[in-house]
C-alpha cells in the first residue's frame, strides 16, 4: 500500500496538479468533440461512444484531482491546524501550500464537473 | 427562452434576498461566533451552496438548448425553414420546403406563422452581418462561408422590426426588415398563393424593363428575373423602402430610384437621376401597385 501513495515532498508542482488536470480535461473534451464533428466519422463510431469515452476521461480526471486533494490534505496535516499559516517557517510554508492546493483542487473538481455537464445533454453534432 | 429568463430571475432574487437578509441579521446586533462556525458558514454558504445551485441552473440551461438551437436533418418534417442572406445593405429571404429547396425568394420582409417554431439558415454574401429580431430572441451572426442556424418562435401576431446587429458598412443602420407574425392558416394561404400578377400597370412595367431594372430585380410573374438586388415581387405590401430606410410610399420609392446613395450611403444600386421625373414616378407608382 505504501508504494502507491507518493511520498510527501516539498515542491510547488503539487500546487498545479489539479488545475493542470482541469485544463487537460477541458482541452480533451472540446478538441475531441470538435474533431469528431468536423471529420464526421459515422462508420467508425457514433456520438454516444464519444460521450462514453469523454465520461471515462472525466472520471479519470476527477480521480486524479481527488488524489491531488488528498495529498494536499495530508500536507495540510488533515486540517489539524487553522490558517492563515503566515509564520516564516518551513512548517508554516508547507501547511500554507497544502491548504492552497486543497482549495485549488476543490475548484478544479467543480470546474471539471461543470465542463462535463453538457456531455449529458448534448444531442448530436450540428451540421 | 422567457421561462429560462424568469427561472433565472427568480433564482437570483431568492439568493439576493437571502444574502441581504443575512447581512441585516449580522448587522442588527453584536454577536460573537467562534471561528469554527464562521468557517462552516464560509464552506457551506460560500462554496458548496453556490456550487450546487450553479450546477442545477447550468444543467437546466443546457437541457433547454436542443429546443433553442435545433438543427436540420433530425427534426420533424413539419419544421418551417427560412434562409436569410445578409447583403450590403438588405436581406435576401428564401422560403424553403421540407427538403431545403427554395419555394420562392423575397427581400427585407419575413413572415412567420404564430405558434410554430421557424428555423433560420443565416449566411452572408459579403461582410459579417448579424440577424436580430429583438422581440423574438437573441441575435445570430451571419459569417462569410458559414451557415448559422437560429430558431425563433413568434407567440403573438403582429408586425415586428428586425435589424442588422453587426456593423457592416456605411448604411448599417439602414439595414432593417419587417417581421409579420401571422396566424398559421393565413400564413399557409400566403405561402401557397404568393404569386404576383406582375401588376396592372403595363406602361410602368415597360419602363421598368426598358431602363434595365430587371437586370438586378425580379418580379415574379413577369419577365424580370434579376438576382443581384432585392426581389420586388409584391413590393407594394412591404413595410418599407430600402430595407427600413423610408416609408413605403410612391414618393419615397421614386426618391430612392433617383438617388439611392443619398437615401442610403453605400447602396450598390446605381442612381437614376438622369431619367425624366415622370418616368421614375411612373415606375414608383408601378412598384407601389405590386400586391
Automatic annotation (TrEMBL), chain A:
Keywords: Membrane, Transmembrane, Transmembrane helix. This is Transmembrane protein. The lineage of its organism: Bacteria, Pseudomonadati, Pseudomonadota, Alphaproteobacteria, Hyphomicrobiales. The chain crosses the membrane at residues 12-38, 50-73, 93-122.
Automatic annotation (TrEMBL), chain B:
Keywords: Copper, Electron transport, Heme, Iron, Membrane, Metal-binding, Respiratory chain, Transmembrane, Transmembrane helix, Transport. The chain crosses the membrane at residues 6-25, 37-63. GO terms for cellular component: membrane. GO terms for molecular function: copper ion binding; cytochrome-c oxidase activity; heme binding; oxidoreductase activity. It is a multi-pass membrane protein. It comes from Neorhizobium alkalisoli. It catalyses: 4 Fe(II)-[cytochrome c] + O2 + 8 H(+)(in) = 4 Fe(III)-[cytochrome c] + 2 H2O + 4 H(+)(out). This is Cytochrome aa3 subunit 2. Subunits I and II form the functional core of the enzyme complex. Electrons originating in cytochrome c are transferred via heme a and Cu(A) to the binuclear center formed by heme a3 and Cu(B). It is found in: Membrane. Residues 77-193 form the Cytochrome oxidase subunit II copper A binding domain. Belongs to the cytochrome c oxidase subunit 2 family. One of its GO terms (biological process) is ATP synthesis coupled electron transport. Residues 199-291 form the Cytochrome c domain.
Amino acid at each position: 500500500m505504501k508504494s502507491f501513495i507518493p511520498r510527501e515532498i516539498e515542491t510547488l508542482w503539487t500546487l498545479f496538479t489539479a488545475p493542470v488536470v482541469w485544463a487537460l480535461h477541458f482541452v480533451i473534451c472540446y478538441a475531441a468533440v470538435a474533431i469528431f464533428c468536423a471529420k464526421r466519422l459515422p462508420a467508425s463510431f457514433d456520438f454516444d461512444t464519444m460521450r462514453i469515452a469523454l465520461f471515462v476521461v472525466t472520471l479519470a480526471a476527477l480521480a486524479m484531482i481527488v488524489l491531488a486533494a488528498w495529498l494536499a490534505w495530508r500536507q495540510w496535516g488533515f486540517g489539524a491546524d487553522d490558517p492563515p499559516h503566515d509564520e516564516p517557517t518551513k512548517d508554516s510554508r508547507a501547511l500554507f501550500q497544502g491548504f492552497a492546493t486543497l482549495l485549488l483542487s476543490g475548484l478544479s473538481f467543480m470546474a471539471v464537473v461543470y465542463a462535463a455537464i453538457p456531455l449529458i445533454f448534448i444531442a448530436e453534432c450540428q451540421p | 427562452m422567457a421561462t429560462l429568463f424568469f427561472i433565472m430571475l427568480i433564482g437570483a432574487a431568492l439568493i439576493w434576498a437571502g444574502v441581504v437578509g443575512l447581512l441585516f441579521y449580522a448587522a442588527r446586533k453584536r454577536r460573537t461566533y467562534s471561528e469554527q462556525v464562521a468557517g462552516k458558514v464560509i464552506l457551506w454558504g460560500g462554496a458548496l451552496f453556490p456550487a450546487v445551485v450553479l450546477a442545477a441552473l447550468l444543467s437546466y440551461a443546457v437541457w433547454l438548448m436542443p429546443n433553442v438551437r435545433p438543427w436540420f436533418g433530425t427534426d420533424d418534417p413539419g419544421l418551417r425553414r427560412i434562409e436569410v442572406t445578409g447583403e450590403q445593405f438588405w436581406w435576401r429571404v428564401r422560403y424553403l420546403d421540407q427538403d431545403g429547396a427554395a419555394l420562392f425568394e423575397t427581400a427585407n420582409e419575413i413572415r412567420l406563422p404564430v405558434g410554430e417554431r421557424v428555423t433560420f439558415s443565416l449566411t452572408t454574401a459579403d461582410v459579417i452581418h448579424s440577424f436580430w429580431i429583438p422581440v423574438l430572441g437573441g441575435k445570430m451572426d451571419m459569417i462569410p462561408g458559414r451557415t448559422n442556424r437560429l430558431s425563433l418562435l413568434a407567440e403573438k401576431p403582429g408586425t415586428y422590426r428586425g435589424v442588422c446587429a453587426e456593423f457592416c458598412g456605411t448604411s448599417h443602420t439602414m439595414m432593417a426588415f419587417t417581421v409579420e407574425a401571422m396566424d398559421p392558416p393565413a400564413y399557409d394561404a400566403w405561402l401557397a398563393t404568393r404569386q404576383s400578377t406582375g401588376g396592372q400597370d403595363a406602361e410602368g412595367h415597360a419602363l421598368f424593363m426598358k431602363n434595365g431594372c430587371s437586370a438586378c430585380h425580379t418580379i415574379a410573374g413577369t419577365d424580370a428575373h434579376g438576382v443581384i438586388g432585392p426581389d420586388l415581387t409584391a413590393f407594394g405590401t412591404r413595410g418599407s423602402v430600402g430595407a427600413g430606410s423610408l416609408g413605403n410610399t410612391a414618393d419615397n420609392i421614386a426618391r430612392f430610384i433617383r438617388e439611392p446613395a443619398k437615401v442610403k450611403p453605400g447602396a450598390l444600386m446605381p442612381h437614376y437621376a438622369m431619367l425624366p421625373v415622370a418616368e421614375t414616378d411612373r415606375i414608383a407608382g408601378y412598384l407601389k401597385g405590386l400586391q
